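User: I'm new to structure prediction. If I give you an amino acid sequence, what do you actually give back? Let's try with this one:
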Amino acid sequence: MVLPESIQKARLLNLSLLVGLFLLFVLASTAWAVDPHTLISQYGHTAWRIQDGFLSNPGAIAQTMDGYIWIGVLGGLVRFDGVKFTPWAAPNGQSLAGSGISYLLAGRDGSLWIGTYGGLSRLKDGKLFNYTTTPNSPGINNIIEDHAGTIWVTRYRVNDGKGSLCQVEADKLRCYGEKDGNPGKYAIGLAEDTAGNIWFGCKMLCRWAPNSSSFYFADQLKNPAGDNGVTNVAAGPSGSVWASFGGIGPKQGVQYYSEGKWVSYVVPGFDGATFASGTLYLDRNHSLWVGTQSQGLYRIHDGVADHYGRANGLSGDNVGYIYEDKEGNLWVTTDRGVDMFRDLPVVTFATTEGLIGSEVHSVLALSNGSVWVGNVGAVNIIRAGSVSAIAAGHGLPGQNVEVIFQDHSGQIWLGIDNTIVTYKLGRFSAIKNSDVRHSRGASWDC
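Assistant: Good question. You get back a string of structure tokens that encode the predicted 3D arrangement of the chain. For your 446 residues, that looks like this:
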């Protein structure tokens, strides 16, 4: 078959774009958060697995102002400088408020707040201070810093006669209990919404503010379904709130609050009622990350979910903590290790991302912003990061797509097997005469 000169030139140009690679799609990387329009499988991914001896039972994670990553592990804390993990020892023979690290928060003033099974500690400028109320102080479940810089904590095993929700005031904790509008005998999870309300799990879900409180899922008090009720909460813009539960089924899993009502959180690729979750995290791009207890990691952005589990490379399917560092990298701790995801300047599309066929012959960027990829068995169409295809036997008039070209009128020309065809308005037309200007062809609907 003799191809027209214009198509021969296009073929040479397309092949030069491949440069021996499977398929690389160059995008401008964001420096402050992982790109929500990129699939998780397309991020750079590094995993430190327990089986390789890097860490022992990793849990809570945070990054302090000096850039160090801190991870709570079995027996204490480790500090990561980007190369190695170094165990941390308390200064001057001191010890943390309790054994076991339950939560970490890097404060805006450079402090590292450390929640333990026996109280709250603060590390700043090499000095350690413990906030304890009894010899066996309540455990700390979660820590946040609100919009005004106040540190809040939720507590469990409350044995000091004080409440389960506390704020730090200088060198002591001011706690809020039932007389202050907090009915929770313990508190789990913690978030502040855009109006300054504090949300936390209290078997039910509690919303608390001075002189104002509301409670949701009160049936959890009567029918706990064998779990601890609300396990975590995340608050987003425009008053949206998500709550996770340790069980699955109606009013369990991941619930969503919007416009005054709660519903199971369901989007394409994610049904909140079917996942037991203990971890919710809202990143700077307003993507919701859901850590499940047995199904790995989900990210929901613009109403669409993406999944990444152990089968894809995640260290484990039981996700414990999720954290976004200052550079926009996303950290995840699991039952089997620690994972870090980062943006790449070059994004790869492969069969994992939905590409049909593994032998790419041609690539063409169209005037409408989509990218067409020709290979054996299909024309793949990439638009806004998602992949669709016109496959052999399902609209493609042939098997081997060798070359793709778009002329000034917007019509697309393809070399498929031993035939030249055009594509316009959803139809393929075969060219029967080498003189393209006067040819007439048969058509296939696509």
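You can read the tokens as a compact description of the fold. Here is one thing that stands out. The chain is about 5% helix and 45% strand.
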